[in-house]
């Protein structure tokens, strides 16, 4: 088996602003009320990838959101 590294991606602060607005606790400890709170904090909050709103295919929606962030420059390779 071959193990290969992958490039990290980090937030571009020039696009997302204050990092405190885009981080959240792990999805498994977030209540529905907290989920709403983090959604309102920023369009780039990690909650949108970790714990998407429960409609349709959550994984597909998270993937689309992530690709949009990269397209708009919100994330950059390390």
Mean pLDDT: 93
Number of strands: 2
Oligomeric status: single chain
Strand/helix succession: EHHHHE
Give the biggest sheet: 2 strands, antiparallel
What's the N-to-C terminus distance?
26 Å
Widest β-sheet, arrangement of strands: 1-2
Strand content: 5-15%
Helical residues, percent: 40-55%
Low-pLDDT parts are none
- Based on secondary structure, the structural category is mainly alpha
Domain count: the total is 1
Number of helices: 4
Using the CA coordinates, give the radius of gyration: 14 Å
Overall shape: globular
Your description of this structure?
There is one protein chain. The chain is mainly alpha-helical and 78 residues long. The protein has one domain (9-77). It is built from four helices and two strands. A two-stranded antiparallel sheet has the order 1-2.
